[in-house]
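Form 12-C: Joint structure prediction
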Amino acid sequence: MSEPLIYDLSSPGRVAVSLPEPDVEEVALPQDLLREDLPLPELSELELVRHFVRLSQLNHAIDTGFYPLGSCTMKYNPKINEDMARLTGFAFSHPLQDQELSQGNLILMYQLQEWLKEIGGFAGVSLQPAAGAHGELTGLLIIQAYHRDRGDMKRKRIIVPDSAHGTNPASTTMAGMEVIELPSDPRGNIDLDKLRQVCDDTVAGVMLTNPNTLGLFEEHVLEVTEQVHACGGLIYGDGANMNALLGVVCPGDLGIDVLHYNLHKTFSTPHGGGGPGSGPVGVCEELVDYLPGPIVDIVDPGDDVLAPLFGFVAPDKSIGRVKAFHGHFGVFVRAYTYMRMLGKSGLRKVADHAVLNANYLRVKLRDTYHVPYDRICMHEFVAEGRWEDAPDVHALDISKRLMDHGFHPPTNYFPLIVHEALMIEPTETESVETLDAFIDAMLSIAEEAHSNPEMLLNAPHETPFGRMDEVKAARDLVLCCRPVEIPQA
Amino acid sequence: MTYIPHTPANRQKMLEAIGVERMEDLYEGIPERFKFPDLDLPSRVSEIEIAQELQAYSEANLDTKHIACFLGAGAYNHFIPSVVDHVLRRNEFYTAYTPYQPEVSQGTLQAIYEYQSMIANLTGMDVSNASHYDGATALAEAVILALNQYRLKRKKVILSPKIHPQFREVVRTYMQGVDLEIVGDETCDVDAQTLADLADEETALVAVQYPDFFGSIEDFSALGEAVHAVGAMFCVVVNPLALGLLKPPSEFDADIVVGEGQTLGVPLAYGGPYLGIFATRDKYVRKMAGRLVGETVDSRGQRGYVLTLTPREQHIRRDRATSNICTNQGLIALASAVYLSQMGKSGLRKVAELCYHKAHYAAEEIDKLEDYSLWNQGLFFNEFVVACPQPIVEINELLLDYDILGGYDLGQCYQELQNHMLIAVTELNSKDDIDLLVSALSEVSHE
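Section 2 - Result
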């Protein structure tokens, strides 16, 4: 089933593109700076198209099957969003053209900022960060700038719960701060006693994921935010799980000071095989001046005749740009389209049905797969992929066997506080029939784990590829192919 | 439209299975006083209405399909063959996630591997990662790599002032919590020799841009040598399209090559999403941030691809990771892989040459005008600076009457370059466009 590499399909002299001849007089090329060889492939257009279409067929995708990947919110990506992002005025406008010539883009960005503020309960939003992790770094730099601005130089530590995404501690280090890890209590909440012990005047803030990565709403959230505020720290909210909170509760109301959204999770923009995402950051009133610029605002309110003029402004004490230009604008158009089509009532329905689907799967699977923190969950839950009487079988084997049933596996081995974790997030766009088929597959795999574990240990069987030798990949490190040398005739 | 398939009967059945009566009962632990806020959001619209609304917004913008574009400064109006978007619209590519499960993600994995290969071959480096957010963040990651290489013992980073101003700003944003000196870009007339003189035993990294922000190109071999002589690392920020024609930075002995990949088949899209290119030498692979795809075999003996060297990454090393990055620009990297495959060996060279010839024709014609002069001293690629007789804002406003989007006002970022315009010319600018620009500039200065 292997598809040849693009370089293996290359034949010297083939051309796949039609370009014009120069219509100006040619000038001398910079001889001393010319490259000798350009090692790129040479194919016909048809060969090229077949190659990439064949590659695409080796992927599992939302549009080919269920994708219950916990913490990733693999919901349907509406097709109208794609068409809107490709409208000429959006796709072919230059980021540095004057704001007067970009009013359509700026209005769209302004409204997106306003809606994200409203949904999160925040006073300001910057759309600049390119992804969730980028939003985290931005949020931490904002927290750091806030303390520095107040002359509070001691605050170098960030409290991170043990259930947090790995990006939380990594972002903390990147921002030049230290991590204090905090354990969870038996109900999956932050351990308040332990929190009290670490809260002092060296704490810059806490990173809170709510719902947390167990899919549980933090029951002591108000105590946590009060406790950290009382010691002078700020609350960073990881908004990866906002899908469960749309119209249900505003993070800002709970005392969260900074939060990043993932437009590619909550607001239906495609994951694109790993990107581009978009991670706007929302902040409370005290932090608005530190947001990364530029931000869109009304720069001239207009009057009876003239429409208001939108433009970019830089906040007073901004941490500075976190990327070039204005953020992932193409992603904004998709998210805008989605939010507009859902409207106020639709957003709440998203959360309701995401939570309904997750709880349905939880109760249908919990008798077979142990759910260590078994209470009403939000948009996802974590089960264990192990049985004492099937000692050879691991979460990984269950995951691989699921592929034979046509399903993408759940996130596995995360969060780290659950052994052999299977983190399952169905999203609201899946029907009960799909969920039932998934439940049947999970139950049949559990049965097989006991009666015929080999089927799991050697899985997958029905996919175009079997398990990959990851040790070899890391040991031999082949990261690049060179063009095939053609011997001189 | 909510895209939710549940019928009332479905909901009833599911609530019963869960053992609760109403949807509201599904929310446990949420403080009652904050539950179900009355949000001030607009009500829903249909697909017909949203398409009309956004068509109107789209038309409220100027776009390069309706005007001759001479604006570049880090984002360029290039030809994108139809094939690129047809591949991007394959549902199996754009609705997939990060390829954590290689058995069902070989399409994405092999495409990224091919992207890495073509970028490595184009830049002359040993290895490319799966991409960063954009050129600016890729440069920031290069600085982090260099600091880590010397275990934070070298605390100086030298940036050429001819690196894109926004890239340099992003480096400073990233580094504000780190004890570090960033120098070299105080004024714009700093040449390679001056940068070489600044480099010392305290220096972790020296970075330059090629072609630089003003479009100029020069041989950085001597600078590369000087940087290595003090034991520092050398980074070159590239426009990858220019490498279709120009010597790759490997010939300057670069340790890291970063760049904005937008020129490789990515639409302007008002600034993003773009593509951060990051390539380096084998010896730095384990310190490089970002996703990496490597070749291996599967249990059936077939060649296959996986994400590799993941122990560097955040989900395993947490606070000791090389970076917090956990995505790449997946689909945009795919676009560039398709673009480079389609352009191929002869096409990329031809596009680069078209840009070069047209830009030189434009520069020569403008330089002939009485009130304008070419500012670049030596060689340049497809962008050049023109000293103008009046403020650029005024000129650009008048150029709009001729359906021309004028160049970038350098005075915004370089105090000493008031009334200097940075003009970009690509294969999409016809001779007629250029002639129109030249005559318009001439008329504008006489108005």
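Section 3 - Comments
Chain A touches chain B through 204 residues (CB under 8 Å). The longest strand of chain A covers residues 203-209.
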